[in-house]
Amino acid sequence: MSYSDYFASRREEQLEELKQWLRIPSISALSEHKQDIQSAAAWLADTLKRAGLENIEIMPTAGNPVVYADYLHAPGKPTILVYGHYDVQPVDPLNLWTSPPFEPEIRGDKLYGRGTTDDKGQTFIHIKAIEAILKQEGTLPVNVKLCIEGEEEIGSINLPPFLETHKDKLACDAVLVSDTSLLERGRPAICTGLRGLTGMELTVSTANTDLHSGSYGGAVPNALHALVSLLDSLHDEKGKVAVEGFYEGVPELSALMREEFAKQGLDENKVREGLGLDALYGEEGYSFVERVGARPTLELNGVYGGFQGEGSKTVIPKVAHAKITCRLVGKQDPELTMDRIEKHLNAHIQPGARFELKRSERAFAFNIDPSHPILQTAADAYGAVYGTRALFTKDGGSIPIMQAFSRVLQSPVVLMGFGLDDENLHAPNEHFNLENFDKGLLTVVEFLKTV
Amino acid sequence: MSYSDYFASRREEQLEELKQWLRIPSISALSEHKQDIQSAAAWLADTLKRAGLENIEIMPTAGNPVVYADYLHAPGKPTILVYGHYDVQPVDPLNLWTSPPFEPEIRGDKLYGRGTTDDKGQTFIHIKAIEAILKQEGTLPVNVKLCIEGEEEIGSINLPPFLETHKDKLACDAVLVSDTSLLERGRPAICTGLRGLTGMELTVSTANTDLHSGSYGGAVPNALHALVSLLDSLHDEKGKVAVEGFYEGVPELSALMREEFAKQGLDENKVREGLGLDALYGEEGYSFVERVGARPTLELNGVYGGFQGEGSKTVIPKVAHAKITCRLVGKQDPELTMDRIEKHLNAHIQPGARFELKRSERAFAFNIDPSHPILQTAADAYGAVYGTRALFTKDGGSIPIMQAFSRVLQSPVVLMGFGLDDENLHAPNEHFNLENFDKGLLTVVEFLKTV
């Protein structure tokens, strides 16, 4: 049976199976979901076993477990390590979801639910592609290992030491990852660059109690004033990061790179209109794809302090909070970047206020040379299925672990993504276009058979 | 029996009675407490009846009802209208309360709970003082009316039309209010100035969905960036409000006024240390009491947007909010002030972002001439009980309705406060020093007998 027929005949059954996994709310950022993390890992281990994989293990880390499996019966052939993650993003604001995030639902040709595209849906493609080859041909043409973690959405903090400890067990000729996007519908892409990431929580404090704005207003520091003043100081009027030394290690865009970006042919007006915006906003002198692919950022992801209820409350808050992440490029050092931000905050904090900075994620940017033969094979595999060869792109996201994979395992990393940028990953109404689920299965089969 | 003995013999019983009222969570800012507002009004009406007052009515308004009562059996004598409020502030953050806000508890010589000082405790003093004179002497030496409202903490929006409608019924020679503070323990004060108030809710929006900071970060507007930039622009680097025209109508401080403020002898270092602050913060060139008593403010009471949960979430929020109030002085016009702020926001909003401004409270500042005989009598009444005559001060708070009382009823307003500034009104662990409950009862009796 052709692989097309094979997958077509099992489509409904396989989507039902994926939905089981999507129903488990394995949110790694929230400790109340610890048990769901365990359930999602257990479900995965079972599914790998049913797919015909061997040596399945739920391997402990200092945090959430890694699920491992392999099939090593092609001596002399390359070994491909598939990486993915079974944890998902939080779901608030819940009221903006059309269908509940953990009740996956197909509407039209899209599967809706948290984790559908990031990353359960994409990880599931690899499992089902391997299962298909095993069912159709009795064995695999290459050796495969799977390493699926549960902390990607909180920075993969425990994976680098895990890779170090198990680097012999995980040794491979290439790491294969599906956690990125096509350029757009019908236009596949292999990402050859990812931004690095740092995360921080900033807490600004003033008095030892909340105060009445009548009795004290105008004469004492207000934690919210001190916070917004600090936060506003982090960018200049043109949207450039104003932290001294922040851009150190950021490569200048060469004419060649600008040409590569231009090839993507992104219609910025279409993006702007799609987002319902009057204007895009970013660093002057760069296009949208350059800003996202080659420039670093400092973003506020959350800010809160004082009264949030209905109506008003004339309070001067004693504490205010901000959640901040930076996307890094080139050789920007995550730790040094946080040092610089801390120094900037120290220099700009208002009299009477003080702050604490709690550091979390740290990941260098990732870059790979697209001329590597395995990347060329991957581009061809897409070509065979999509009818158009994959472009080599740079993505603005971060998969913090990519840099560690290439450093520890000394292997090329192939980012073979099947998502689309407008699939609301990390937002309400996350979804996965089933066209790319179907084509993804065939592309992975093609890749494993030709690599 | 002396009034001291009278109150001493009933102290425990009266505090138990007050606690019943404090247990009703009559938070006017939160609609889920509508029923509690009704219960607090009903409790008050019963208590006024038991105290011997007459013509008790729970009078409807477009919002929460006004509780009215009177005792008009002293022809030819002055009529005193007692004003107070039975609604209270919200209680969050709840986890910072030592005892629950609506389970009043005496610890040491203080009564803890929401509303103890602002304003159920202070209103209760008037009821019990009137009851005492009626019990001891069979009648009152003056005519009294009580007008106790349920919307003070949300700006008394419906009281001005109520006063207009019922201005004959409420006609009086003076309005007596206990909703302010002593200067400090043992130092009574009569407030002759209150700041005005305006309230606004600012909502900043960008894209039509939350976005992933990897796929979009650096190339689209972030509602939080736009918000903090707007909010920071509202003050200059020295803490002065940067909105054009904001200070119009603010009187210059005369040498005489500065002298009056200096008489209060406030130890700013003691205030600073008590609040656990490294430094106080406010407009340059003014002392603490001048900043609070004679200068306007623009305060952030709440700011929120994006992810607030545990851990991190790499989201670019599409919406962010701020709650803002201004304290006004002199002839500053609340509506015009909001117009000016809106104009400022329009001029400073980032490209790609837009905002909405929802206006709420509006109150002019209030000022009264301390040389009025009735204020002099009130200062003497304090002197008879506290052993030291009340100082005439200006308070930084707002009782939005004071200006309306003096305008509609054409009567002087006597702000005879029994609170203390450090009693955490509008904050966790609100309390009332029972020393001033005891002395307050005697001071009100003295005032009613001598006015």
Question: Can you tell me about this structure?
Answer:
- 2 copies of one chain form a homodimer.
- With 451 residues, chain A is of the alpha+beta class.
- Chain A has 3 domains: 3-194 and 365-450, 3-Layer(aba) Sandwich (Aminopeptidase), CATH 3.40.630.10; 196-250 and 296-361, 2-Layer Sandwich (Alpha-Beta Plaits), CATH 3.30.70; 254-290, no CATH class.
- Helix content of chain A is 34%, strand content 22%.
- Chain A is built from 13 helices and 18 strands.
- The first copy, chain A, has helices at residues 3-22, 34-50, 120-137, 159-165, 213-216, 223-233, 255-263, 268-274, 288-294, 334-348, 373-386, 401-409, 434-450; strands at residues 54-59, 66-71, 79-85, 105-107, 110-112, 143-149, 174-177, 189-194, 196-205, 211-212, 297-306, 315-316, 319-328, 354-363, 366-367, 391-395, 413-416, 431-433.
- In chain A, the strands form 4 sheets. In chain A, strands 1, 2, 3, 6, 7, 8, 15, 16 and 17 form a 9-stranded mixed beta sheet that branches. A 4-stranded antiparallel beta sheet of chain A has the order 11-13-9-14.
- In chain A, strand 1 and strand 2 form a beta hairpin.
- In chain A, helix 3 crosses helix 13.
- The radius of gyration of chain A is 23 Å and the shape is globular.
- The mean pLDDT of chain A is 95.
- Chains A and B meet through strand 9, strand 10, helix 5, helix 6 and helix 9 of A and strand 9, strand 10, helix 5, helix 6 and helix 9 of B.
- Strand 11 (297-306) of chain A pairs antiparallel with strand 11 of chain B, so a sheet runs across the interface.
